[in-house]
């Protein structure tokens, strides 16, 4: 048996090492003797080869040929449902791309596009053999295939389309994917009816609109027709029969109009190609369904397309036609001056033809026609024509709105390397475990997603799994991620989230929660502080008459009792002053005065209070004797007794509060230490290791100029209390190079 591929593609074909192609242990030669391609496959190959010869260099054709041989060997023994050898599918996909004149890398990727999914061949193996670009393209298509297999809600088709486009990144990946879908639709008959309907539905919802978005009109229409015939086989048959019949009946009218136009245009000196426009069945069906029209109402409109040589002639032709038949007012549209979003350009007008029948006319020049039919692909398809510059400019202009264009050179392969699809650069699309798609700002994290789902989910989220793996909440989400949020009933938003959330919604929800929490904590603290201050005056907060409060609110302009408490807690009002004002004219009760003597201290529960702060100057830790101080605008700040920053404030009266550590307090508190060590290599590492061993985290390290024999190191550590810190100090002191070690407090307040 003769080998088929090499003579067709020409040139030598690189050998495939055994082991790269799975499943065929007895395969020793490149083109095995048992390869009997059916006649059509050989014909297809010949046609493909012929197409390639029209625009690729011989060495590029050789590379594409090698990819074919490789894919054929990889899919050996695999059949499609149609009974054809599997390789007929990638070949058809590549053929279609060749008719768009796509570059060799895209064609190789098309031939190899199912290899990674169906066989054990890896991206790296493809990269070694066919280059990085082709491997990236195959990988991109495979990624889209994997997404496809996830479920999605029908109402989310728009998000799904955006997600596919955002994931593809390279426009060639989408073109391969669309071509793949086209061939699958063309060979859908072999599938079970129920599966056929599902795939047809998906084609209508997802792939046809993507083709439309990219301006690939011929493909768009073909996908729609195929999908319509599989989604509604009966309606398709009835409608297609009816259209055939109607066309027969109206042939005479249509013929007269075409003839009149074909005569009128040359008379006006215009060279034009006039075509009766076949409305496609899905378009007719949709019009009937959406506008509740009868079949005859839809078909009463005739469509013609007129293609002329250049842009000015379009307007001349329009004038000639408006002279021929009466135009319908309000139906003229100039898509030449203002092109559609996908680059489409044409003049549209509706005329009143013979017998009063409306006639729809599209007028465009040859380049507009190419763009209208092939959209994004027209860039590569017509690159060799003389008018390329103008077309290229137009296409570029349009592409710039679609893609991130880094470098545009005349060479299409180089151009392609740099064309990246970035249709939705600001967004990232992720799945919930139930298959719902969420669009989030790019850079979003699982916390953003949690708040997008529901405020309660956001407020209670504690962890997440991305693609079934537990990940930190700050992980940046990528397109197509499946994200599961884990919540806990008593969890609450963490202020640190504000450092990395991207969505405005998450940000405002977290802020809202923290503000509310701060208000409540502050009000609770304020109440305790006020109650202390009142006891000093021999009064009990609970027994204060309502008139005292009313008087105070009127005099101070405060909104409510609770607002006053919150303001005291935040340090905006001083408790002693509020207490004195409230006390004016109120009789002192002896019992409250007695209680005042046994005034309990305010307990400090932990390091992270919103209303109570630990002084940055002295960094108190549990075990340190402490004192609380209220200053305007700062709320309650806790200092160590010997804090130097507060020494000079000692004389201020009324601002001091008794505070105590809550017994059995837990949590991590920051403390600083200063270490003087001999300036030898590795000493820092040894100290750090010792600190870690003592069960502490290092938050920050800084050092003084280490020019001398000794160096001074400053560590900020997390410790649970004084005992813990003492243990660390003892442990580090044992290192021989350590000269001196002390707890350190900064001098500035
Ligand atoms: Mn495929």
- Strand share of the residues? 15-25%
Query: What's the total count of β strands?
Result: 23
- In the CATH hierarchy, the architecture of the largest domain is Orthogonal Bundle
List the ions, cofactors and other small molecules found in this model.
manganese (II) ion
- Distance from N terminus to C terminus (CA atoms, Å) equals 91 Å
CATH fold group of the largest domain: Hypothetical protein af1432
Task: Provide key terms for this protein.
four-stranded mixed β-sheet; 5 domains; Ubiquitin-like (UB roll); disordered N terminus; 30 helices; 16% strand; Hypothetical protein af1432; 749 residues; alpha+beta; Beta Polymerase, domain 2; six-stranded mixed β-sheet
Fold and architecture overview:
The chain has 749 residues and is an alpha+beta fold. Helix content is 48%, strand content 16%. The protein folds into five domains: 27-235, Hypothetical protein af1432, CATH 1.10.3210; 243-383, 2-Layer Sandwich (Beta Polymerase, domain 2), CATH 3.30.460.10; 391-511, Ubiquitin-like (UB roll) (Roll); 514-661, no CATH class; 669-743, ACT domain (Alpha-Beta Plaits, 2-Layer Sandwich), CATH 3.30.70.260. It is built from 30 helices and 23 strands. Residues 1-39 and 380-423 have low confidence and may be disordered. Manganese (II) ion is lined by residues 89, 113-114, 180. Residues 89, 113-114, 180 line the site of manganese (II) ion (MN).
């Amino acid at each position: 048996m003769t080998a088929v591929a090499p003579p067709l593609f020409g040139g030598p074909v690189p050998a495939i090492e055994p082991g790269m192609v799975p499943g065929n242990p007895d395969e020793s030669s490149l083109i095995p003797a048992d390869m009997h391609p059916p006649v059509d496959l050989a014909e297809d190959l010949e046609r493909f080869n012929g197409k390639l010869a029209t625009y690729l260099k011989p060495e590029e054709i050789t590379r594409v040929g090698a990819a074919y041989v490789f894919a054929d060997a990889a899919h050996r023994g695999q059949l499609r449902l149609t009974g054809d050898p599997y390789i007929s599918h990638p070949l058809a996909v590549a053929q279609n791309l060749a008719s768009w004149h796509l570059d060799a890398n895209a064609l190789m990727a098309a031939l190899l596009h199912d290899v990674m999914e169906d066989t054990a061949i890896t991206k790296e193996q493809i990269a070694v053999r066919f280059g990085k670009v082709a491997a990236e393209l195959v990988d991109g298509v495979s990624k889209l295939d994997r997404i496809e297999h996830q479920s999605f809600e029908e109402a989310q088709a728009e998000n799904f389309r955006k997600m596919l486009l955002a994931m593809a990144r390279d426009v060639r990946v989408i073109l391969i994917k669309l071509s793949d879908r086209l061939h699958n639709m063309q060979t859908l008959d072999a599938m079970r009816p129920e599966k056929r309907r599902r795939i047809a539905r998906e084609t209508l919802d997802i792939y046809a609109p993507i083709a439309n978005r990219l301006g690939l009109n011929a493909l768009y229409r073909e996908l729609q027709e195929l999908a319509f015939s599989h989604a509604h086989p009966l309606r398709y048959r009835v409608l297609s029969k009816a259209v055939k019949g109607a066309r027969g009946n109206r042939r005479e009218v249509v013929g007269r109009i075409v003839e009149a136009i074909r005569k009128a245009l040359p008379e006006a000196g215009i060279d034009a190609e006039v075509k009766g426009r076949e409305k496609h069945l899905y378009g007719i069906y949709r019009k009937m369904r959406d506008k509740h029209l009868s079949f005859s109402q839809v078909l009463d409109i005739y469509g013609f397309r007129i293609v002329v040589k250049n842009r000015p002639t379009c307007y001349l032709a329009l004038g000639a036609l408006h002279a021929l038949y009466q135009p319908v007012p309000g139906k003229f549209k100039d898509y030449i001056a203002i092109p559609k979003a996908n680059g489409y350009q044409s003049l549209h007008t509706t005329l009143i033809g013979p017998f009063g029948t409306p006639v729809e006319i599209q007028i465009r020049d040859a380049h507009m026609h190419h763009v209208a039919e092939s959209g994004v692909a027209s860039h590569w398809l017509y690159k060799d024509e003389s008018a390329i510059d103008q077309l290229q400019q137009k296409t570029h202009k349009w592409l710039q709105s679609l893609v991130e264009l880094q470098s545009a050179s005349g060479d299409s392969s180089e151009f392609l390397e740099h064309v990246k699809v970035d249709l939705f650069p600001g967004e990232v699309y992720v799945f919930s475990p139930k298959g719902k798609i969420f669009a989030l700002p790019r850079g979003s994290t699982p916390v953003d997603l949690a708040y997008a789902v529901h405020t309660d989910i956001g407020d209670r989220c504690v962890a997440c799994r991305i693609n079934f793996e537990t990940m930190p909440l700050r992980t940046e989400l990528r397109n197509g991620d499946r994200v599961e949020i884990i919540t806990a009933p008593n969890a609450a938003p963490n202020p640190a989230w504000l450092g990395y959330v991207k969505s405005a919604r998450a940000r405002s929800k977290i802020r809202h929660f923290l503000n509310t929490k701060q208000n409540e904590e502050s009000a609770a603290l304020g109440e305790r502080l006020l109650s202390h201050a009142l006891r000093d005056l021999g009064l009990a907060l609970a027994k204060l008459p309502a008139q005292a409060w009313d008087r105070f609110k009127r005099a101070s302009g405060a909104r409510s009792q609770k607002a006053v408490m919150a303001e005291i807690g935040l340090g905006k009002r001083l408790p002693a002053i509020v207490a004195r004002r409230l006390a004016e004219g109120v009789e002192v009760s002896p019992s409250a005065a007695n209680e005042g003597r046994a005034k309990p201290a305010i307990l400090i529960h932990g390091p992270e209070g919103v209303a109570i702060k630990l002084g940055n100057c002295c960094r108190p830790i549990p075990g340190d004797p402490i004192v609380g101080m209220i200053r305007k605008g700062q709320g309650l700040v806790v200092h160590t007794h010997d804090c130097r920053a507060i020494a000079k404030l000692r004389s201020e009266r009324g601002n001091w509060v008794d505070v105590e550590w809550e017994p059995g307090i837990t949590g991590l508190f920051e403390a600083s230490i200063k270490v003087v060590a001999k300036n030898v290599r590795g000493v820092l590492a040894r100290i750090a290791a010792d600190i870690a061993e003592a069960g502490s985290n290092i938050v920050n390290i800084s050092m003084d100029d280490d020019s001398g024999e000794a160096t001074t190191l400053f560590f900020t550590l997390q410790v649970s209390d004084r005992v813990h810190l003492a243990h660390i100090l003892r442990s580090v002191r044992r290192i021989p190079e350590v000269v001196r070690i002390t707890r350190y407090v900064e001098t500035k307040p």
